[in-house]
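Incident log, structure service

09:12 report received: a user says their structure output differs between two submissions of the same chain.
09:20 pulled the input from the user's history:
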Amino acid sequence: MSNTPFQMSQEDLLAIIKSFSVLKHDINNTLGVVMAQSELAQRNPVYYEKLAAAVLKRGPEVVQKMQDFHSLLTAKLKGEDLSECRSHPTSGIF
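09:34 re-ran on a clean worker, output below:
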């Protein structure tokens, strides 16, 4: 570890906050769909297939977004330029 004091520009901090906000929104959306499909499947087993499809599709997407966010934080802690590490823009719809 370097003894150099850690510094972060306001722009970098705002970029990290924005990325975290998008990640949090995407996780909430995914969990909402999974919860809704689970509730429907309890009432009608036909929905279990839709639940499984939603989990199989959205789960890896959320994991990738969490890994992208981790990369963003790690890059900043290493002093790298965040513009090279920005996550891909998301629409909030998977």
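09:41 both user submissions now match this output. Likely a transient worker issue. Closing.
09:42 reviewer note: The chain has one domain: 10-82. The first helix runs from residue 10 to 43.
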